[in-house]
Fold:
Amino acid sequence: MSLIAIIDDDPDILDASSLILKTKGFEVITASNPVDGYKIVKEHKPDLIILDVIMNEPDDGFFLAQKFRREKITTPIIMYTSISKTLGMQFDKSDMVPVDEFVEKPISPEALVAKVLKFVKQPVEN
Amino acid sequence: MNTNGKPRVLIIDDEDALRGAVKRILEREGYQVATAENGSRGIELGTREEYDLALIDLKMPDYSGIDVLKEIRRQKPNTVCFIVTAYASYETAVEATKMGADGYILKPFTPEELLNHLTSGYKKRLLILEAEALKHEREERLLEIAFERTRLNTVINSLADGVLVVNTDGEVVYYNNAAMTLLNLHDVVIGRPILEELPAEIREIIFTNFTVNVTEKKSFSVEVELKPKHELVVEATLSPVLRHNGQLSGVVIVLKNISTFKKVEHLKSQFVSMVAHELKAPVAATLGFLNIILNKEMSLTRDQELDFLSRSRHRLASLLNMVNDLLDISRIEMKTITREIRELNLNNIITETLSLFTAEIKKKDLSILYDQEGLQITIRADYSEISRLITNFISNAIKYNKQSGTVDIKCYAEKHYSVFEIADTGIGMRPEEKDKLFSEFYRAKNEFTKDITGTGLGLSIVKRIIDAYSGKIEVESKYTEGTRFRVFIPMDLNEDEINN
Structure:
């Protein structure tokens, strides 16, 4: 069974995303800030990380992604974005932004599931 | 022959008969005549004012005609002088000419001979005067140009914009102080090669656009960041200086300091991004919920649906609050608010506001310490703004308080200020949080604040209101122990001192 970690400071987004993925049969763990996010990833070694760009600071999602890569955590990362483009952030996969995919908020269940399935296998439905 | 008034002649001769005869002849011909009966009188008259012509006898008892001539020439060099003598000799003629005599008239002479001499003498006099006038005019013009130049220099040097002119050899030919300050150049000497010291962006434009075959007067502009982080940004405008024949002779570089503009622009776009993010978050959350509810595959339970719908409503309600707060901020900023300045009783507003929060106070079991028996404090201000200010403080003191905490409210006069003081026993702030307190959308985030809602605009509105009344605010806070705010509003503010 694939385990997905969602790290986002908006409890509503956390709940909505979790529900979508749980309905599809994934196991989900969540964290609402970068510190807890780092902890759950280290502890539970998920198969995929969904990470919000802006939490306490306008770019702490990026910093957390960089920290994972520096520590050789190669788990694929999908980044939730909302307005980072206007802040002039780069949206190409690069060393600066070591993530594998982007999802623009708001989230549609189909789009989220489609992006997630690029990285983890569809669990066998019960 | 006489165009501008009668020619004025001075006759200097010791022979009375000759003086009289010459005077009569000349007056008949339209001359204005003055006479002197000896050399000293001649010098006196001839140097006191300027005659057109002078007839000087060579041999007089007191002075020699040569000495008289010398003296007159020395002081009135433009008087045309003739030496008159009966004892013509080659030597005296030469000497007289050397001393500046314009002619030599031999006695005895006929009236015609005399008049011929004087006519040509007067022509000469007119030429001299004309040359004098031209010379004078030219000097005046040179003075004027010199003056104009100094004035232009003063003007250009007092410009806040930098001006720098470079010739086609890349040498500086003109600059003002502002240019040197902006480019941080020192001891620049006219004629020194300067291109290497200019910012690369400016050099680039010069090399690409100002080659010898430029004939068009076309300007180029470029923004140059001279110090990073918008600390010093200039807009450089480069225009060609063309010769009369259309050939390029140099480039004028005008440097305009646009740092403040860039800073404001940066702040503005930062603010816009922040607003966009804050507005988008509730929209995204709500849409996320609706997407799930409407998605058949998700097959939610009725309870889940209701939970998501009520959370959506909650997000939309706070979005509406935020939009209203933003509109308030914008109204204060654009100064379109019409303030109704009245005498307000601060104590009454506090009591009134507290009554609106009765339910919240009861729910948290808070004790409100508010001594209403003290002095009644009045301020001159707009009711809705002051009420908004007090509401925001009381609401924060309740929201961020601990269960069964206290809110301590005081108002009093201190020096020239009316003071409103409110202290809570809430979560408090770390020093670094205090600095951000009044920034838009800043909300304390820690384990205590998870469930506290707000727009993050309350205190930035408060700050703007206080600023509008030239007031000030003090914050004391201890993390986990509580926060105390003191708001100072100046007393006796005139209406026009309030930032309308």
Q: What stands out?
A: Chain B has four domains: 8-134, 159-257, 262-334, 341-497. The first strand of chain B starts at residue 8 and ends at 12.
